[in-house]
Design goal:
This protein is an alpha/beta fold and 165 residues long. Helices cover 41% and strands 17% of the residues. The protein has a 6-stranded parallel β-sheet, with helices on both faces. The radius of gyration is 16 Å and the shape is globular. The mean pLDDT is 92.
Length: 165
Amino acid sequence: MLRMPAVNVLVIGAGMYVCGRGTSSFGTVLPTLAQAKAQGLVDNIFVASTSRNSINTLQGLLSGLNEVMGLETTVVGYPQQDQDSYAYQKALKELPKPACAIIVTPDHTHSSIAADVIRAGVHPLVVKPLTPTLEEANQLVEIAEANDIHGAVEFHKRFDESNLL
């Protein structure tokens, strides 16, 4: 069986869905990427947030996640120090090009961040909703088509029992 090489992944955001910040869980994104790394599907995991404090919190939660899962997953975080609302842009420029970026930020930021990711030649996966407006969504489709980039939206609640009912 042909095995694809492991890919680099950039996560933009470091909150509850990423690492469980503010909850008693480890979130959904970081555990999934840690497992994918353990399976050889992911090489490097990069996380860009708006503050170093968020990255430090994520690193602490990752330590607990590694202990629970029996892994030694590492994450490279941006910003390297202090505050930087555009740390993801620096990460896109400085890092080895990731195969994709998972955008897990407040809804109103999805459009501008996804546009920057697409223009950088990186395939985005946006945690729902894609954008707050249809106009912004249509603009992203145009930008993606112009850059030959595939984008997707992740609907993490679609199988929750309460939603199925």
